[in-house]
Amino acid sequence: MCDILDATPKGDRASMEHPLFSLSVKKDTNPFEYNRNGVGVRIVPAAEEGRANIFDRDILIYVLSQLMAAKEDGKPIGRRVRICAHDLLKATNRHTSGQSYSTLKRALTRLQYTQIHTNIQEAGIGAWRQISLITDAIIVKEDATGRMLDVELELGAWLVKAVESNNVLTLSREYFQLRKPLERRLYELARKHCGQQSEWKIGLAGLKEKCGSSSTDKEFKRLVKSICETDADEHHMPDYTFRLMADILIVRPRPEFAAALKGESYQAALPFSGGALRVSGDAIEEGRALARGWDIHAIEEEWRCWVSDKGIAVKNPDAHFRDFCRKRGPYK
Questions:
Q1: What is the reported pTM?
Q2: Are residues 212 and 238 in the same domain?
Q3: Could you give the CA distance from residue 270 to residue 317 in angstroms, rounded to a whole number?
Q4: Which of 207, 229, 251, 296 has the smallest number of CB atoms closer than 10 Å to its CB?
Q5: How many domains, in total, are found in the chain?
């Protein structure tokens, strides 16, 4: 039973390193092939709904997080789990409207029927094999409106082995706030390849391969450049900074994240005379209305980091925070 509401998000290393999920938010029915450094992947999309995409992966992150939390509590874990659909939607920063439940149903179909043929190593074995993300999905309960309440699903064995062998990495909760598929993919790669290092560099050609992007080289560079420019202005990417120099992407951990990884405390030197930026309860509620659907406390922390990173002298924290929320806007 997946009922640990504060489980820390976890992602398996294999799908963070290799492009197992489509970056398209539209129905992707094109077979996909990837070969890099001896690792091969061939993906056959689900006939009905197309290939599993990077937003579908939220379901797996949620379940892996639950399994890892249960394992750390000394509880037995297995491939078959039951989740509350409402809890999943809330934990992954989604709306709980009827459309969201319909989207969840389609995501389960894509995860179940997308077939992955690969030689990604598992316990030192590099033989080619066919793997599934989930092998079974049952809607256990539905209410009178036809909206799902509980879902029982069976994970692919390789995902459970990732948990059992601790072959997972912690993700920022802000990952679920990233709107663009490429933003999510860049964060996954940064978390996997940069980690605690002071810097990670990769050329655009190699980055495009690892992202699994089907864009032209020119368009891919434009998309990456746009994300980097937005991050420089708004500090919106979790944990890491992303800067594009010519055709090289440079990734560095943010100071507060690097300190957290090392188990140290980090006190941002905020340019506000009070020593810390304090926002009133009224401003928080107004911000919640302006940025409807987002985690207001995550936005507040992002705002604090952004102010500190940019060295902004804030004279009126309430007004400044409201303006930050207004620019973020409702979750779409």
A1: 0.77
A2: yes
A3: 12
A4: 229
A5: 3
What are the phi and psi torsion angles at 77 (to 5°)? -125, 160
Whether residue 296 sits in one domain with residue 150: no
Kindly tell me the sign of the dihedral angle through the C-alpha atoms of 56, 110, 137, 69: negative
- The confidence score (pLDDT) of residue 275 equals 39
Q: Using CA atoms, how far apart are residues 231 and 174, in angstroms rounded to an integer?
A: 14
Is 97 a domain residue? yes
Domain termination residue (choose one: 137, 171, 205): 171
Residues 101 and 225 in one domain: no
SS (H, E, C) 129-162: EEEECEEEEEEEEECCCCCEEEEEEEECHHHHHH
Report, as ranges of residue numbers, the positions in the chain whose pLDDT lies below 50: 123-125, 264-275
Q: What whole-number distance in Å separates Cα of residue 108 and Cα of residue 152?
A: 11
pLDDT score for 280: 79
Helix (H) or strand (E) holding 101: helix 98-113
Q: Which residues pair with 113 in a beta bridge?
A: none
Beta-bridge partners for 251: 200, 242
In 21-133 the beta strands, taken as DSSP E runs, fall at: 32-36, 39-44, 80-84, 115-118, 129-132
CA–CA separation, 256 vs 207, rounded Å? 26
pLDDT of 269: 31
Name the residue range of residue 288's domain: 281-328
- Compute the CA torsion angle 167, 68, 106, 145 (nearest 10 deg): 180
CATH number of the domain that residue 219 is part of? 1.10.10
Return the axis-axis angle of helices 181-189 and 204-211, rounded to nearest 10°. Answer: 110
Tokens of 171: 């993700």
